[in-house]
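One such shown below:
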Amino acid sequence: MDDITAWSHEHNYFGGTQEANERRTRIVIGLTAIMMVVEIVSGLLFGSMALLADGWHMASHAAALTITALGYAFARRNASNPQFSFGTGKVGDLAGYSSALLLAFIAILMAYESVKRFFFPVDISFNEAITVAVLGLIVNVVSAFLLREENREHDHHLHVADHNIRAAYFHVLADALTSVLAIVALSAGRFLGWSWMDPLMGIAGSAMIARWSYGLLRDSGRMLLDINPSTSLSRKIRESIESDADNNIADLHVWRIGPGHFASIISIITKNPRPPLHYKNLIGHLQELSHVTVEINPQKAR
């Protein structure tokens, strides 16, 4: 029993910033929910499609952030659940994928309503609508600042990215840009008489959201399908193993099991088989490898 205990290990493959990300997400949810109600009600009262579109985007933002928070809570509570073969590190990828689907739906709805406004325009209370749009932009900038620090170190590295907080972070940035578009459209209508700019900015905002949604669907989907995002890691494993003795890797599987954590199954053919720990030590310097299984196949002499 002691030997078994010595070789067993936990499967908690979370990113190092998960607790901070979860805490920041809760704060942003509160800010977003308040601003969402203000913008949607104001858009309906003042007749602004750009403002209403920003409010809908805020609604999708609030829903996506809620998914983010629930994903973190579920992953934390089930971290030691043996039903999850490699832990709950990929729950964030699933939450990010779900958020992206929600954004795609919102983008379609925004485009539809904006096009309809071209044919059925309504009167817009520009001064009031501009005030609310500026307030929405301020809330978005504050929210982006709250999420920025934890996201910055992971954002440009797909293999360590926390797609859950990444979804929330880019959603806030998209919200901020949508608010800017709303302010531009309302200002053009107020000072230049270009009322058509309002639905046009609604269409531009929907296109922007759709593009962002596609990017997150692509990246999080790759993680859910266990597509290896780090070919360099596979190369390093192969070089480290095959540089020792007459080892040859016959089969190599590498996939991500959480932000910054990888699992690998390595099948080795060699004339001089050694204990599995020997081969694990050869790749011990690859810190992102958190779960390694080695299969040793003795090569018969000819």
